Amino acid sequence: MLKLPRTIRLDPSDTFVFERAAEPGEWAVSGAFVFWNCDPATLGQKQRVALRSGFLGIDSLGWSTLAVVTEATEVERQGVIVRLAEQLVTKFGAPDMEAALAAAQEEVAFAASLCDHPPQTILAVQRTVENGEIRERFRTLKPRETEQGSDRLHTHARAFTFHEVEGDEPAEEVDLLGLSNTDRIKADRA
After folding, report:
1. Which Pfam families does the entry mention (predicted)?
2. How far is it, in rounded angstroms, from Cα 39 to Cα 32?
3. CA nearest 9: which of 20, 27, 24, 28?
4. Which of 5, 20, 39, 170 is in Cβ range 3.0-4.6 Å of 67 for a Cys bridge?
């Protein structure tokens, strides 16, 4: 089964913390490439927040604190690659569409590798710059099993639900939903 991340907004905070917030439901990639060759000291506060903890929505080029694992078709995956390649040419100066497609395929493949979880699993990222290199650590927040079955994220009218967390304890404390259990980091990408 093919899965890719989509942006998700549990509250309006993304609209305040990022220069541009991604729209909920956009296909997403890590987006670390946006900061390649940037000096973090020269970034504004909202850009630093995006560097530290944002997923990039490929349509708006806005940021989302969280992404959700979503089933996708091969046609959708190809569409994500083409759309990201178009953005790489028009907004990021890729030399041509061929080079942009190759880069987009790599980014989408990495995004898909983050989705080796059940659908509706929430993904969070923490980035640091170490010795001039961006390091990414990803955590997962899964719906908690209840007596009635899974506590599904999108089936309740509540603003917040509780989730089990997989991932190492982050260096920076994030109290997203009053989470109290943090295990191991799922992925560490240099």
Report:
1. DUF6505
2. 13
3. 24
4. 5
Which two tokens mark 152? 């599904």
Q: Considering only CA atoms, which of 69, 52, 59 is closest in space to residue 4?
A: 69
What pLDDT, on the 0 to 100 scale, is given for residue 170? 42
Instruction: Output the six-digit token pair for 179.
Output: 């989470």
> pTM score, two decimals?
0.76
Q: Is 63 helix (H, G, I), strand (E, B) or coil?
A: strand
3 state DSSP class of 44: coil
CA quadruple 108, 111, 112, 114: dihedral, nearest 10: 170
pLDDT, one tens digit per residue, over 101-138 is: 999 999 999 999 999 999 999 999 999 998 889 999 99
Residue 169 CA: distances (Å) to CA of 80, 89, 110, 134: 32, 37, 23, 19
Place of tokens 């908690």: 144
Paired residues of 39 in beta bridges? none
Q: How far apart are the first and last CA of the chain?
A: 27
Mean pLDDT in residue range 141-155 = 58
Full domain range(s) for residue 45: 1-190
